[in-house]
């Protein structure tokens, strides 16, 4: 697994945890420790996303930046492991 794949996997795990905490807080709105943890996961996700995008380009399409930056990413059929 290359650095890009490792970073994507780590970012995905952090964003999954944040999403799950968000869903949990829908049914437990008074759980302050879960709310604090959600804030920490969101901050960590933002830092990880910024680091990834600085190295490998944008993760999602946006109005800011280079409109065609996504084309430089490897396509699924250009898998380096294949």
Tell me the number of strands: 0
Distance between the termini: 12 Å
Work out the helicity level: 55-70%
Quaternary status of these chains?
Answer: single chain
- List low-confidence stretches: none
Radius of gyration computed on alpha carbons: 16 Å
The chain-level mean pLDDT equals 87
Principal-axis shape: elongated
In percent terms, what proportion of residues is strand?
Answer: under 5%
Structural class based on helices, strands and sheet pairing: mainly alpha
Sheet with most strands: none
**Order of secondary-structure elements:** HH
Number of helices: 2
How would you describe what is shown here?
This protein has 82 residues and is mostly helical. It has a domain at 3-57. The protein contains two helices and no strands. Helix 1 (3-27) packs antiparallel against helix 2.
Keywords:
mainly alpha
Topology:
Blueprint: H1 3-27, H2 32-56
Question: In brief, what are we looking at here?
Answer:
The protein is mainly alpha-helical. 61% of the residues lie in helices and 0% in strands.
């Amino acid at each position: 697994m290359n650095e890009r794949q490792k970073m994507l996997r780590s970012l995905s795990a952090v964003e999954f945890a944040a999403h799950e905490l968000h869903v949990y807080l829908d049914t437990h709105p008074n759980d302050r420790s879960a709310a604090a943890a959600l804030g920490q996961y969101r901050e960590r996700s933002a830092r990880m996303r910024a680091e990834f995008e600085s190295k490998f380009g944008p993760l999602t399409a946006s109005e800011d930046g280079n409109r065609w930056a996504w084309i430089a990413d490897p396509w699924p059929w250009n898998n380096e492991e294949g």
